[in-house]
Amino acid sequence: MNTGAIWQALIDRLDQMQEAGQSADFWLRDDDAVEPTAALHRLLELTDRFSVPLTLAVIPAHTDARLERCLAGRRDIGVAVHGWSHENHAPAGEKRQELGGHRPSGTVSEELRTGYARLRALFPTSFVPLLVPPWNRIDAEVVAGLGAIGFRALSVFGPEASGKAAALIRPGLQIINTHVDVIDWRGSRGCRDHAQIVRDVLARLEQVAKGGGSVGILTHHLVHDENVWAFLSKLFEITATHPASRWRKVSDLIGR
């Protein structure tokens, strides 16, 4: 199936949902924000053009008032806590992880508490009580203490109904994951094939139709190539105005 045909398949599926009286909520999570950059400004301009709300997962240890000034007055921006310093504490040979079981859980929790307070103070109008673990990995013992810090939601990658995600569920803590990643991390580290990304969107729409939830799109503005920007522009063009799709602030999804 060529790229044009796969985009048409997305339009057709949304048309079918509209005819059935159904709709899907989309949300956009972009990781690793620290400071204003050309790439961040490009992302802000693109989302603003299509009125797509944006959730920025910000690294607390490395950000400052420059990012706050950059985001000031933007009502469709949410700021989530992206760990503390995005530092790997796993030993060589293991998958990278900052919020794992390699350190005392109290140490990890105290870092998260500091990061939560720092971002809430820096971004008082856009802060959301959402934790985005670096590399989408977090130890269950750390999850158990998130509510006491003030977190109301956790976002990793993959279907919320999977066994891996189910293991993270705690009373009062909502799981709001991303489901479609645009980056080919294990290959070119550029944009994945557009047709394959759209297939992932279509697969997630089927899951939503059967079991509810949202379609979470995951991006990393600092490593986007031109193909990523082209993909996002086309995706927003189709979905931002279609009656069967709605781009939502993550704050609207928390507690829903």
Walk me through the structure.
By secondary structure, the protein is of the alpha/beta class. It has helices at residues 3-19, 38-49, 65-71, 105-122, 140-143, 146-149, 163-166, 194-211, 226-239, 250-253; strands at residues 24-33, 54-58, 77-81, 127-131, 153-154, 174-175, 180-181, 214-219, 245-247. The protein has one domain: Alpha-Beta Barrel (TIM Barrel), CATH 3.20.20.370. Helix 8 (194-211) links the parallel strand 7 and strand 8 (214-219).
Overall mean pLDDT stands at: 94
Shape, please?
Answer: globular
CATH homologous superfamily designation: Glycoside hydrolase/deacetylase
The helix/strand order is HEHEHEHEHHEHEEHEHEH
**CATH class category:** Alpha Beta
CATH architecture assignment name: Alpha-Beta Barrel
Q: Main β-sheet: number of strands, strand sense, barrel status?
A: 9 strands, parallel
**Residue runs with pLDDT of under 50 for 5 or more positions:** none
Key structural traits:
single chain, alpha/beta, TIM Barrel, 9 strands, globular
